Amino acid sequence: MREYYDTEWGSPVRTEQGLFERLSLEAFQSGLSWATILRKREAFRAAFHGFDVDAVAAFGDADVERLLQDAGIVRNRAKIVATIGNARATAALRPEGGLPALIWSHRPEVPLRPRTVDEVPTSTPESVALAAALRARGFRFVGPTTMFALMEATGVVDTRLVGSHRRGTD
């Protein structure tokens, strides 16, 4: 966990594949600990073809059944089906500029400047708007809290405490 937070969490992710992976993992994390998802990350990558959007978008019923048998991942039918649907929705966004453009368009104009952990929100007006924009385009498991976690993890917002050695380093 520490290595993830020190080297990856909060660093800007601007590629379709990178954002689709993080969106998918955040959806699978819903109701579980992030440590569980990180331990299974490589298995998720293998099961979902490296989170290649086009490959996942082409998954069918046989793939859903295969994934439900994969003990290396979280075997939740709703989340698996949502991930496949989210891949299709991601591909459909390409004519509009793509998933990166949509997610990054919700970056707050005024950066958050938390001084204590209690000042770090669990959602913001921007994460509420992002969740609504994604749902309107057919995405699932994209609630405001989950989208805020995505925004933090991918560098869209920086919630490191003022004075942190990593604040603003990306």
Automatic annotation (TrEMBL):
GO BP annotations, alphabetical order: base-excision repair
EC category: hydrolase
Listed EC numbers: 3.2.2.20
Gene Ontology molecular function: DNA-3-methyladenine glycosylase activity
InterPro entries, alphabetized: Adenine_glyco (IPR005019), DNA-3mA_glycosylase (IPR052891), DNA_glycosylase (IPR011257)
Keywords per UniProt: Glycosidase, Hydrolase
Domain of life per record: Bacteria
PANTHER family tied to this protein: DNA-3-METHYLADENINE GLYCOSYLASE 1 (PTHR30037), DNA-3-METHYLADENINE GLYCOSYLASE I (PTHR30037:SF4)
Protein name per the record: DNA-3-methyladenine glycosylase
Species the sequence originates in: Mycetocola reblochoni REB411
